[in-house]
Amino acid sequence: MGTIGVEWVNQYHGRAGDLSNNDDNALGFYNTLSGTRQFQWGDDWAWDEDFEESGVGAPAAGTDQLYADNVDIVFFSGHGFSYGAFYGIASHDDGVAIPSNMRMGNRQCEWLILDACLCLAYNDGRVFDVWRPTFTGLHYILGFHTTTGDSGDRGRRFAQKLNDGMRVRDAWIQACVETEGGGTYWAYLRADSGGTNTYEDHWWDKGYVSPDPVPPVTLLYANGPC
């Protein structure tokens, strides 16, 4: 069975506007998806270092080998921007999980979900350079090209579709369409290399899962209206 981790932030202590539904969103995913639940951290217990590589960046306080890269799928719900995910406290590392400090998949993770605004904004193609360092065996990053609403139900819907055997990309797109309006654009980045086919990825035990794209030869991007 696949392994699952989630983190969520509603309380931002003035670093950004507080949110209301990210606990329901992330925990809906965590409690619905079939698999082994490994960790769920929220608010002041959710730290950017959990998503970053040990020894990379400054400060270099990453612990992803214990958390985000120690599960098959990890889901973050909170604020974001085009250069990463934003946390409510900065006392563990610096409060921002930035792509240049992330190395996902060199241990375990196949799918990273950033249910946050703008994390996958296309930005005239700069999205490829921004996120390329993160792909070290990772199959997908799924998120948004635009801002997005404070949904409390997208995680549950996404998990249910994965349980039902939908491909990972299709499950994310459909969950976004069901929970957002037409002004919001879903997005994903995926990696492929020789002998891989991440386009056809399913959740573990629900269908085909590609071998890890190591090293990632190609990054492919898509977005579309909800």
Characteristics:
seven-stranded mixed β-sheet, Rossmann fold, single chain, 226 residues, three-stranded antiparallel β-sheet
Give a quick summary of the entry.
17% of the residues lie in helices and 23% in strands. The chain is of the alpha/beta class and 226 residues long. The chain has one domain (3-225): Rossmann fold (3-Layer(aba) Sandwich).
Describe this structure as you would to a colleague:
- Helices cover 17% and strands 23% of the residues.
- The protein is globular, with a radius of gyration of 16 Å.
- The two termini are 31 Å apart.
- The chain contains four helices and ten strands, in the order βαββββββαβααββ.
- The chain has a single domain, classed as Rossmann fold, CATH 3.40.50.
- Helix 1 links the parallel strand 1 and strand 2.
- The protein has helices at 22-32, 126-131, 154-163, 168-179, and strands at residues 3-8, 36-42, 73-77, 79-81, 84-86, 96-97, 111-115, 140-144, 185-192, 218-225.
- It is an alpha/beta fold and 226 residues long.
- Strands 2-1-3-7-8-9-10 form a seven-stranded mixed beta sheet, with helices on one face.
Write the layout of secondary structure elements.
Elements: E1 3-8, H1 22-32, E2 36-42, E3 73-77, E4 79-81, E5 84-86, E6 96-97, E7 111-115, H2 126-131, E8 140-144, H3 154-163, H4 168-179, E9 185-192, E10 218-225
Parallel strand pairs: 1-2, 1-3, 3-7, 7-8
Antiparallel strand pairs: 4-5, 5-6, 8-9, 9-10
Distance N terminus to C terminus? 31 Å
Oligomer category: single chain
Average pLDDT reading: 96
Strand content: 15-25%
Number of strands: 10
CATH class: Alpha Beta
How large is the count of helical segments? 4
- The SSE order reads EHEEEEEEHEHHEE
| Overall tally of domains | 1
Low-confidence stretches: none
The shape, in one word, is: globular
CATH topology: Rossmann fold
**What profile does the largest beta sheet have?**
7 strands, mixed
**What is the correct CATH architecture?**
3-Layer(aba) Sandwich
Cα-atom Rg, whole angstroms? 16 Å
